[in-house]
Amino acid sequence: MLNFLYCFDNNYNKQASVSIFSLLENSSEKINIFVIHKYESFINEIEIKILKHEKLNDLKCYQFKESNISFPNIANSHISEATYYRLFLSNYLPKNLKNVVYLDADTVCLKDPIKILKETYSKMESSFAISVLTEFNLNSETEKIFNNLGMKNSKYFNAGVMIIDLAMWKKQDIENLAQLKMRTMVNKINFWDQDILNSIFDGNFHKLDKKLNYIVTKNNKTNFKAELKNNKSEFPFFLHYAGSNKPWSFIGTLEPSSDYYQSYYRKLFKEKYHIVINWKKLVLKQLFQSVINLKIFFKEYSLRLIFTVLKNIFKD
C-alpha cells in the first residue's frame, strides 16, 4: 500500500484538501495519507468526502512540535515555515514505513499514479534515497545558484514531488544534514528547503518521470489543455502549480491549467470557484481588464467567477 505525505499550515488547508481529494479520486488502490501540520486540529476540518472516501485506508495528522528553530528566508515571502516540515519527517511518520511519496499542497492528481509510482520505487532499487525531477541544468545563467550552494554536479531538482526511500533517507542521515545546513547556509538559501536538499544530494538522485511532476508556472504561456489534448500519452499524473501565480489567485484562475484545480474544488466544496485575494486594488484592476478584453468570459461559470472575486474584494 502506498503512502503519501503533505506538509502545510492553515494558509493551505483548502488547497491541500483539493490535492488530497484529487489523489483519492484517481487512485486505483487504497492509500495512506500523512499530514504534518502546524496544528493537529486540522484533522477536524477535513471534508467528509475525504474521510469517507473508498480509496482512503488511513489519514493521520501530526502537529509540528519542533521548537527554537530559525527557518531561513521566509520573511516577506509567499512561503511559510511549513515548507521545512518535511526535513523532520522521521520524527512523525511511523517507524515501519519503507517509502513515502511527498506532494506539495499545490499539486493536483489527474490520473491513477499507483502503477508508475510502484515502478519508480522498483527502479530506485535501494540505490537512491529520492526520485525527483531535474528542474534546470548548470549553465551561464544558473551557475551562481550552483556555486552558492556548493554543488559540484550539473542538475538542480524540483522538490514538489519526491518519492522517498525512507531506509536510504535515514541511512544517508538526510534530516540531520538538512537541519545543520538550515543553520550554516542561512544567508545562501533562496528556494528554501529545496535549496537545502539540492545542496545535500548534489545530483545523487533517481530521475523522476516528468509526468509525475508536470510543472506549470506563470512564465509558461503554453495553452496547457490544448497541448495535452493533442498528446494523450504525455498527460501527466501530477500537475504542479509552481511559483506564485496559483490557480486560486484571480490572474491564475484565468489560465487554462487552473481548470483542473477548480474542477476538483467544486466537487469537494460545492462552490464554483476558490479565490484567494491578497492585493484587492490589484485584483480589481485585473478583473476590470479581463472584462474589457473578454478573457474572463471564456471561463466556465464566468458570472459566478466575477461575483466571487467582487465578494472577496469587498468583504469586511
What profile does the largest beta sheet have?
Answer: 7 strands, mixed
Secondary-structure element sequence?
A: EHEHEEEHEHEHHHEEHEHHHH
Q: List segments where confidence is low: pLDDT < 50 over at least 5 consecutive residues.
A: none
Query: Order of strands in the sheet with the most strands?
Result: 3-2-1-4-7-6-8
Proportion of β residues?
Answer: 15-25%
Number of helices: 12
Task: Examine the secondary-structure arrangement and name the CATH architecture of the largest domain.
Answer: Alpha-Beta Complex
* Helical amount: 25-40%
- Give the termini distance in whole angstroms: 46 Å
Describe what this molecule looks like in 3D.
The protein is 35% helix and 18% strand. The chain has 12 helices and 10 strands. It has helices spanning 13-26, 48-51, 114-124, 143-148, 166-171, 174-184, 192-201, 224-229, 250-253, 258-269, 280-292, 302-314, and strands at 3-8, 31-37, 56-63, 99-103, 107-109, 130-137, 155-165, 206-207, 214-216, 238-241. Strand 9, helix 8 and strand 10 form a beta-alpha-beta unit.
Search tags:
35% helix; Spore Coat Polysaccharide Biosynthesis Protein SpsA, Chain A; alpha/beta; 3-stranded mixed beta sheet; 316 residues; single chain
